[in-house]
Amino acid sequence: MNTIKCPACGKELAIEFVTTHDISFLGLSFRAERCLRASGIDTVQDLTNCSVSRLRGITGFGECSYREVHRKLSHAGLGIRGNVGIADAAIKEALGITDTEPRHD
Asked: Using CA atoms, how far apart are residues 60 and 103, in angstroms rounded to an integer?
């Protein structure tokens, strides 16, 4: 079973358990959470499936909010699509998340 560290309590939790949680699980600021919800991003999995460009395109979601989200996800061992580190890649592979769009040749 693949696990990650809970950003709130530091316990090891199953990836599937964490990613299905509401974004409030990450303990984001009111502004960051409000902007994400207004864009239809309600779960941790929704957030990890977002691209950097989508997040940066959210109205009212500036550099500080982006850095906050990146920091909270990194602390939990997760990342944003298109901004994947080695640990993030292993987690995304376990969840079946891909960073590329399907090609239609």
From this structure: 32
Average pLDDT, whole number, for the chain?
75
- Reported as a pLDDT band with limits 50, 70 and 90, residue 33 is very high
Whether 75 and 5 have beta carbons less than 8 Å apart is answered as yes
3-state helix, strand and coil shares in percent for the chain, rounded to the nearest 5:
50, 10, 40
Sign for the CA dihedral angle at 89, 90, 93, 94 comes to negative
Residue 84: CB atoms within 10 A of its CB come to: 17
CATH architecture of 3-95: Orthogonal Bundle (1.10)
Closest CA to 82 of 68, 64, 99: 99
C-alpha–C-alpha distance, residues 100 and 102, integer Å: 6
